[in-house]
Amino acid sequence: MEIVRLKCGFSNGINIGAVGSKGGLSLGWNGNDLVSIKSYSFSHIDAMILDPDNGMEWRLTGFYGCPDIRFRTVSWDLLRRLGQDQDVPWMVIGDFNEILSSFEKKGGRLRSARQMGEFRSVLEDCSLYDVGYNGRWFTWERGRFLSSNLRERFDREVANLAWLSLYPNFSLDHLNYSFSDHCPLLLNTMGRVLYKINRSSSPFRFEAKWFLDDAFEEVVKRGWKDHQDPTDEILGEIMEVQLGLNFEADKEEVYWAQRTRLNWLQYGDRNSSFFHRVEVARHNRNRIH
């Protein structure tokens, strides 16, 4: 692990060796004052990160879930102990060796509902929310032939609401893999914003559903009076955008309806609390300031 870290250009770091082909953790960084290690074990590295761009400190935990289902509760107990400290923004990333719902697995035997339920429960207990991703839906793959191919989303990032509020523009990408059967995760706290954000102002948010309000056009006119009077041409362009945004909103609504329906058929109301919390996190991340 140390050789890989040094080849990546990180002079400072901590390395936890693998046992055979299982496990192995490494955290690397440059600069002596940016990272301070809180604790570590075969299954985790817990550290405080100082962001030099905003002067804020947040908590990063690299996590490895036990691949043996017989000892999976040991991993969940560890995460719960780490979750007792919620004083700062907290993000956990790694290979959990478990999925949240059946749609995160393709091929092979069906995952036990009890196993997935225990994973959802530990995230709820720790107030951690799955943050989503860009790219392919799976992070682990085995089997080259269609009949034996297995794909699952074992690797993910989860975070508390304080971390999501600290980095509202973040992005998480599933990259292509080559030697490993896991794909790398690339986290960018600045997301796809290519310009420097003025920290004294809140990011711009817009809800497509506003177009459905009859008073929308009048509100826009009043808002622009202090700057310039919108022309008929500008208002016409706004109405054209309205059609496109409503179409995209409808597509997203269908997506979430299908996704919720799939899990409702599988789990009934056992996951209603989980989906409610995820939607709260999603709403808070996209709320208008």
Description:
It contains seven helices and 13 strands. β9 (140-142) and β10 (150-152) form a beta hairpin. The radius of gyration is 22 Å and the shape is globular. The chain has helices at 2-7, 72-82, 113-125, 161-166, 216-224, 232-267, 272-285, and strands at residues 12-16, 25-29, 35-41, 44-50, 57-64, 90-95, 105-106, 129-130, 140-142, 150-152, 155-159, 171-174, 185-188. It folds into two domains: 2-188, Deoxyribonuclease I, Chain A; 208-285, no CATH class. α2 packs parallel to α3 (113-125). It has a six-stranded mixed sheet. A three-stranded antiparallel sheet has the order 7-10-9, with no helix packed on it. Mean pLDDT is 80; it is low at 194-201. The chain has 289 residues and is of the alpha+beta class.
Topology readout:
Layout (H helix, E strand, L loop, with lengths): L1 H6 L4 E5 L8 E5 L5 E7 L2 E7 L6 E8 L7 H11 L7 E6 L9 E2 L6 H13 L3 E2 L9 E3 L7 E3 L2 E5 L1 H6 L4 E4 L10 E4 L27 H9 L7 H36 L4 H14 L4
Parallel strand pairs: 5-6
Antiparallel strand pairs: 1-2, 3-4, 4-5, 6-11, 7-10, 8-11, 9-10, 12-13
Helix pairs in contact: 2-3
* SSE string: HEEEEEHEEHEEEEHEEHHH
| CATH third-level topology of the largest domain | Deoxyribonuclease I, Chain A
CATH superfamily of the largest domain: Endonuclease/exonuclease/phosphatase
Q: CATH top level of the largest domain?
A: Alpha Beta
Rounded Rg: 22 Å
**Strand percentage:** 15-25%
Distance between the termini: 43 Å
Instruction: Domain count, please report it.
Output: 2
Q: Strand sequence of the main sheet, in spatial order?
A: 3-4-5-6-11-8
Question: In terms of structural class, how would the helical and strand content be classed?
Answer: alpha+beta
Can you give the mean pLDDT? 80
CATH architecture of the largest domain: 4-Layer Sandwich
Describe the oligomeric state of these chains in a short phrase.
single chain
**Fraction of residues in helix:** 25-40%
Number of helices: 7
Dominant shape: globular
